[in-house]
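Work package 3, deliverable 3.1, input record:
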Amino acid sequence: MALQDAKPAPDTRSRILDAAEALFVEHGFEATSMRMITGRAGVNLASVNYHFGSKEALIQDVFRRRLTWLNEARLTALEQFERAAKGAPLKPHQIVEAFFGVSLRMAADTEHGGHTFMRLLGRTYTEPSSFVRQFLADEYAAVVPRFKQALFRSLPDVPPEEILWRFHFMLGAMSYAIAGNDALQLVAEYKLDEKDPGALARRLMPFLLGGLRAPLAGQAVKSKEKTPRKAA
Amino acid sequence: MALQDAKPAPDTRSRILDAAEALFVEHGFEATSMRMITGRAGVNLASVNYHFGSKEALIQDVFRRRLTWLNEARLTALEQFERAAKGAPLKPHQIVEAFFGVSLRMAADTEHGGHTFMRLLGRTYTEPSSFVRQFLADEYAAVVPRFKQALFRSLPDVPPEEILWRFHFMLGAMSYAIAGNDALQLVAEYKLDEKDPGALARRLMPFLLGGLRAPLAGQAVKSKEKTPRKAA
DNA sequence: GTATCATTCAAACGATTGTTTGAAACGAAT
DNA sequence: ATTCGTTTCAAACAATCGTTTGAATGATAC
């Protein structure tokens, strides 16, 4: 075929990736069998091992396909803000926007699989499997230090350790907001409105910023740690 | 033996529960086999099916053993605040303390398995397996409405829907803070200090309150939703 | 001692797992 | 038309899965 120069056509490789991505979200890595994947993709069972080598390698490729792009987009967004700032420290909301805003926009893309992937990614942060965690660590190695440094400069009065914790908290809130859409039904009766993918971002970003800029715990008061008295 | 009256002795049942709890955190439900569980517990393979019936039933009992107590403790804490308030609406920080403070105190208990269990619980919110989700929903059925109502009364100016979202965000931040301790290593080089289990609570509670009370998103602006221009 | 109960044990069950194999089918180049 | 490299296919592989079985063991009551 000649017309598959632009779009390589739904070839076996990407059909497998799509099917695996969706099934991993639905059932998890372990509970998703090769036969489920190849069955959904409409390809032969052996083709996964032929194209990817193993199930582990397939899992990694499922992530690599989109995670590399995502992290580059986050870096690009950060650098754009930094260029505009001309050496001045960024505002916290800009850094949050660069990291989490990009993620949420990807999660809002329900057509090209971005939504599915972000659910999978969020779920994977708590994935016990060690090789997945190691893989994630490698993929994030180029991004995290840049954002850390930007946050340190942006919030010079906040202890760096505290900033890292809050970054971690923000990551958790976002991941659950995307991945744990099912868990939301514990709290509310309704689901996330699929018709308005931007709604989550509009609700989450203020929460993240509010948490990031919350007054520090009473580091002066160190009497009893029963109940935090008042924060604001 | 006569001296095993006070402490019912590490009987088979609870040895299985302990081993399963630890292994589920370490490897997840699917990746943890019956043979791993019985091997660590030092009991016969068939004893799981004898005492619990099936692997599914074992999983549910692992949760039930501690979750029932946890939810009762959360309710007790809430009712204590409500009694003291004499009908007046509670302060947000009191509600957060009742729900999340109790959880964090359980997570700080590294000796009696509370820490292990809370990691497992946090991880399970994103668990795809349907029967676990259904089970969690049932266990939370008595607790969630009470806290929802308390929050609605406490924040009469905030739309109820927004409150539910923020409750969901808080749940996510806490779950990740506990369960995703491994994910923290993506961000920081160090781990949570095991010697100071209360540290997490002191860091997390201000973050949660800051997010809960953050100013609402600019619900007036509704121009284009390409890139959120400015938030603050 | 003997009967009765609950529990433990080694062994095996069928089903399913990820992976491998060797032949068949395909497309492009000679 | 024939060769070559790539891809697909049905079938089988050993390993492991959760579960079941029936006999051995233990403790308790008669």
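Residues 28 and 120 of chain A are 9 Å apart (CA to CA).
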